[in-house]
């Protein structure tokens, strides 16, 4: 038995991760329930450090002790059934690593279940899609800290790097890694939604064609907005359609977005934890709404569109850019405030600065400005909301007038910008001296004797409200 690690699941992510490990000198055993897939990978991408197995017992026997078995299979039931298949064939101290997008509560449950059987379980968030898996993803491992040493060398070696630093760090106990990956995806949804709204603004308010859009995003990518998603967006607007029409492919794509669910999980979780991540929720809702093609058609013909055709000023593009940056900052502030609450709720002791730092390369939300998040937590590790860090605060103060202008423009033109508006609502709800909750408390006390607190004296109060008008 001399194989360093075994991977179960030879679909896109599993096979690319296997090759990545093999490249880094680890001997990788590959197994897939449907043998033909393993065979295909072995034939198409042979590697001296990669060996295919067609029998689960042989696969497991090939592994060094403690055995490391990584699951790269569809999240949900399949993970449970493979775990149950593995248990009788594993020894105490062996390790199962789930590298899929599993729901963190499932990971917590499986971690406990396997712990009772003496098997170590790691729930590992992996971001970066196919290319990341092959050449260096961002990796978020959660599990037993003392056992982490058994998986650390492999995970760090295959991860993306910023200079010498691996984009992989131990996140926390049990489900912490999958939780952090889930919220990463939520932030990814908000980031993508903001870019989509920016596109609508530039196109329908600015009147720019795809060639110009590509140029704008390309230029932005050289500055403080520098990020993977801005970069691929510049590429997308430059892509020709099948007839060679320049930059036209994006116009041929149906205006209806899919989702596998991690963004929705984030949003549901935020409600459970009582944390406002309105931008991520807005992004989820917009994807859902985008699918209502018939209803949207009906609404488009029956609901009058606003008439407004003021010309935009010369600084329009720059105002949009500033708004995008400010709103993006709010999306991260929301995502990280969810981390903050989860860290306490689940006892994970999350290192927020470190989490931001492993997002700097490999993952979908990789961006220049993540450094600023790391710095913010370095300055103050008890920061409750990123908005209160000096850099973020200055940015919000400098750019909020652009954000207001752009939002007003979009609203007058009837362009849907749910994520942009949520960002501003979040700022104003925090900033405004009054949020209207005094009236809500009065109503609650009126109809349900739910009581209220007062500004002028301590205590719990109930009032016998009079019916003045009814
Ligand atoms: C990543 C991505 C990856 C996947 C998303 C897509 O970090 O590499 O987030 O996990 O592409 O799950 O999510 P939707 O299908 O929900 O858009």
UniProtKB/TrEMBL annotation:
Recorded GO MF terms: NADP binding; phosphogluconate dehydrogenase (decarboxylating) activity
Keyword entries, A-Z: Gluconate utilization, NADP, Oxidoreductase, Pentose shunt
One GO BP annotation of this record: D-gluconate metabolic process
Pfam family, one: NAD_binding_2
Family, as annotated: Belongs to the 6-phosphogluconate dehydrogenase family.
Pathways per UniProt: Carbohydrate degradation; pentose phosphate pathway; D-ribulose 5-phosphate from D-glucose 6-phosphate (oxidative stage): step 3/3
EC number(s) recorded for this UniProt protein: 1.1.1.44
All residue ranges annotated as the 6-phosphogluconate dehydrogenase C-terminal domain in the record: 177-466
Principal EC category: oxidoreductase
Protein name: 6-phosphogluconate dehydrogenase, decarboxylating
Cited InterPro entries: 6-PGluconate_DH-like_C_sf (IPR008927), 6PGD_dom2 (IPR013328), 6PGDH_C (IPR006114), 6PGDH_Gnd/GntZ (IPR006113), 6PGDH_NADP-bd (IPR006115), 6PGdom_BS (IPR006184), NAD(P)-bd_dom_sf (IPR036291), Pgluconate_DH (IPR006183)
UniProt binding sites for substrate: 101, 127-129, 184-185, 189, 260, 287, 444, 450
